[in-house]
Each structure stands twice: as structure tokens, then as C-alpha cells.
Amino acid sequence: MIAVVDVCSGNLRSVERALAKVGADVVVTRDADVVRRADKIVMPGQGAFGIFMRGLVERDLGEAVREAIASGRPYLGICLGMQVLFETSEEQGPIAGLGVIAGHVVRLVPPTPAIKVPHIGWNQCVHQRPDPLLDGIADGAYLYFDHSYHARPADPALVTLAADHGVPITAAIRKDNLFACQFHPEKSQTVGLQLLHNFVARP
Predict the structure, then answer these.
(1) Distances from the Cα of 75 to the Cα of 24, 100, 111, 171, angstroms
(2) What is the DSSP letter of 138?
(3) Is 186 assigned a catalytic role?
(4) Selected catalytic residue, list 147, 165, 186, 197
């Protein structure tokens, strides 16, 4: 069973539908005990970092997610579900994250006003290193983004996909059983479904 963590972030049903489309047994939950029992964890997220973190803490979901990752179960973080893994975010902050990944989340500051923030729409993603969740996804494939802040991992070797929006963007990271992406696979059509299929199909 795959638990989709519900922190009232708005895009849960599209994630649930996309996972079901690729054959997943999915439950959307706000229950930390369900997260602890799940075989795999998916945490999508949209909105403000601080509000999202408060929801995780108030429902004990943050600790349940930490435990799941520490136990070695597969974890997929999407957008804010990636950002909250880091130590801090400067959005309305600094605000502490879950601290699973060393590094920080900072505002997108392109070098020219012609490059708009938030970064919304399709952008090309370049492979930085092989990853099983990227099987069947071409180097240079386009994926869908919607964000104003981006993660800077302390260890650049964690970056599996990179994009550019006037500044380099960490599009996806891998650390052991944890994979997380700044883009929205559930909104990225065939390419996004391929990534979700790879996550569901792997043990």
C-alpha cells in the first residue's frame, strides 16, 4: 500500500489519480499510524512552507515520515514534499524543515526581470546521474513546474535532474531510498506518469 500524505495542500487528488492510473494501491491519509504502516510514502505539497510544516507537526506526520525514510521504505516527495526534507526554508523565515537532507530552500532570484517568478510551466530537465526512477525518461525531457523557492542541497552529488530558470534549479534528488522532485509528475503527462510507474513498480 502507498500512503499519500495529506497536509491539506490542494493537489492530492490529482496525485492519487495519477498513481492509480499506473497501478498503485493508494490511500490518502492524515493519520500518522497509516503512514507508519505503509509500504511506500508519497508526499505532495503546494502552498507555503511554514503552513505545510505546521500541518506535519500538529498531526505527528513529520515524525512518521522521518521514521519511514529512516526505515528504508521508498519515499517520493513532490514540490513542497521535497522542500520540507531540507534543514530550513527562507520562505517567511527562516523556518525549520524536517532536516532529512542537508541544505536549504531559497527564493528563486533570476538575473533579469524578464525571467518571471513564480516559475510556472514546462522546463527541460537534464540528467545529472542515473536513477531507476528515470528509466524510460529521456535526457532533456520537459516536466511541469510551479514554484517560487528552490532547494540547494549541501551535497551536489544528490542531484539527479537539473533545470534552469535563469539560475540552476535542483529538479530532483536521490538519497538512498528517498527520491524527491521540484516538478509535478502528476501534471507532467506521459513523462510524469513514467516516473510514477517506476516508483510503483520498484520493490
Answers:
(1) 14, 12, 34, 16
(2) -
(3) yes
(4) 186
How far, rounded to the nearest angstrom, does the alpha carbon of residue 175 sit from its chain's CA centroid?
Answer: 13
pTM score of the predicted model:
0.96
Angle at 149 between CA 40 and CA 146, to 5 degrees: 70
Cα(56)–Cα(47) distance, rounded to whole angstroms?
14
CATH number of 2-201: 3.40.50.880
Of 16, 79, 125, 127, catalytic: 79
Cα 147 to Cα 121: distance, rounded to the nearest angstrom: 10
> One digit per residue, pLDDT tens: the chain, 203 residues?
999 999 977 679 999 999 999 999 999 999 999 999 999 999 999 889 999 999 999 999 999 999 999 999 999 999 999 999 999 999 988 999 999 999 999 999 999 999 999 999 999 999 999 999 999 999 999 999 999 999 999 999 999 999 999 999 999 999 999 999 999 999 999 999 999 999 999 98
Which of 104, 147, 184, 197 is catalytic? The answer is 184
Question: Beta strands of the chain (E only): which ranges?
Answer: 2-5, 26-29, 40-43, 75-78, 86-89, 95-96, 101-107, 119-124, 126-127, 142-147, 149-153, 159-164, 168-175, 178-181
184 is an active site residue: yes
181 carries an active-site annotation: no
Distance of CA 110 to the CA centre of its chain: 22
Supply 178's cell numbers.
Answer: 528517498
